[in-house]
């Protein structure tokens, strides 16, 4: 095997390792992005529950006020 053949084999091995490394980095990137999205979705869900609870309480208070006002007229 001459120098150029050896260099080609070496370059191919390096390219293969780099492609494998790149695939691993892409997997890690996808995993990290999914973690961030999951955290954001959890925060949004928590906000929606809180908003629903507050809205339900506001409706309940408004209904109580309207009921008291209607009771005065009946």
Give a structural overview.
With 74 residues, the chain is mainly alpha-helical. It starts with a helix and ends with a helix. The mean pLDDT is 85. 96% of the residues lie in helices and 0% in strands.
Which key terms come to mind for this protein?
mainly alpha; 1 helix; 74 residues; 96% helix; rod-shaped
SSE arrangement:
Layout: H1 3-73
Major sheet characteristics: none
Beta-strand share of residues:
under 5%
Number of strands: 0
* Helical content band: over 70%
Number of helical stretches of at least 4 residues: 1
Summarize model confidence as the mean pLDDT.
85
Please state the structural category.
mainly alpha
**Terminus-to-terminus distance:** 106 Å
What is the ordering of alpha helices and beta strands?
H
- Overall morphology: rod-shaped
Report the radius of gyration as a whole number of Å. 32 Å
In short:
Helix content is 96%, strand content 0%.
